[in-house]
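Before going further, learn to read the protein records used in this course. Taken together, the tokens spell out the fold as the letters spell out the chain. A record is reproduced here so that you can trace the correspondence yourselves:

***
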Amino acid sequence: MNHIRWITESLGTAAASEIFDEMGLVVIDARSLIDGAGNSAEKIQALIDKGVSSLLAGRKTVICCDHGMSRSNAIAAGVLSRFQKIPVLSAIRLVQDSTGEMDIKPGPLKAVISALEELTKPQLIKSGAVLLTGSSGGIGSVLSAPEVQRFSLLMPSRSDLDLGVGSTRLQILVKELGADTIIHLANPPISATNLALGRSLTMLKNVIDVCLSENIRLIFPSCSDVYFGYEGFMEVNEGVARDPKGHRGESKHLAEILIDHYRQKYGLRCTVLRLARIFGTQNNSPKFIYNLIERARKGIHLETHVFENGEPGLDLLHVEDAVAAMVRALEYPVDGDFNLGSGTTITSHQIACIIRERYGAQSEIHPIQLKGQTSVIAMNHRKASDLLGWFPRKAFIGWLKETC
């Protein structure tokens, strides 16, 4: 019995291959279920009834499946809910805490929840709520502003929701809070590594699983970096094929491929917002701007870059304009992709000149010659203007002169 993970003194789960004949042990085999959707309520109810009857008879009861992870733990939660007369969502948490299994698949969980009819209770429903992942980030902190709260914005902390370990906690929160939309902002803390790229896709896949299971919408912020593989100046609309560059661009590009697949194959309802480089956040991004400001204040020379095909330039979007786009996507639930930016670009040399003038600094501007080609991408936002009624409001140069 060493391989059995006990939830209570009498109820446990295990992989079928790890259960050995033990006196007085009742084994309930859940291997006939599937990890995805499609399990019948009658079959789920029969397994739960068998578990409850066994516990009522005072028998030690173990529920098994192939790996002792999803089907067995989902049924165990149903048994625990019925036996202890507690809400199924509370039972799921107890199963997770006891077994350490954080990634119970959405399909079996939903089947158990539906079979117990726990979620038809009106007190659990808050219609129209929006669940936000990554609420502590630069955009998330602005989304938490009071004027956005009319959407019943729900912002679980990382301690409440770690998408890197599975989808179960997210599914519970969606059910408990009655969310009908997820805005997925969460990313690994350090994003510029291959490990982070894989983790970000894992997090997105967990969100997609819940959106499909619960039939709710997803709003996913992508970025202009998905076009940074192009060389020289380009004004890009949604018809331009993605050509990513760098960890950020590649991560979002792969995320969009995953989203496209689930849209086409399974009907995922999703709005992708491709945001130009964000400025105006509390974390002082983009960093090079604040580095230039710091050097100007100290009277140190300002360094800018020049590539073989010219100076790099960025389309910059104020964080409040990015948030406004998400609000419009909530108000007008149009599935599809939208490019968002000012539609213009500015070079690091131009930014350095504005900063030097603002401080009356004697700093010289030193261009650093770099090998290779650079991209200068302007985001054409006409589709967002036509379908969402969105326009950028805060110009970068005006903000820079006021801020620095």
About this structure: Residues 5-120 form a domain with the Protein-Tyrosine Phosphatase; Chain A fold (CATH 3.90.190.10). Confidence is low (pLDDT under 50) at residues 118-127. Residues 194-214 form the longest helix (21 residues).
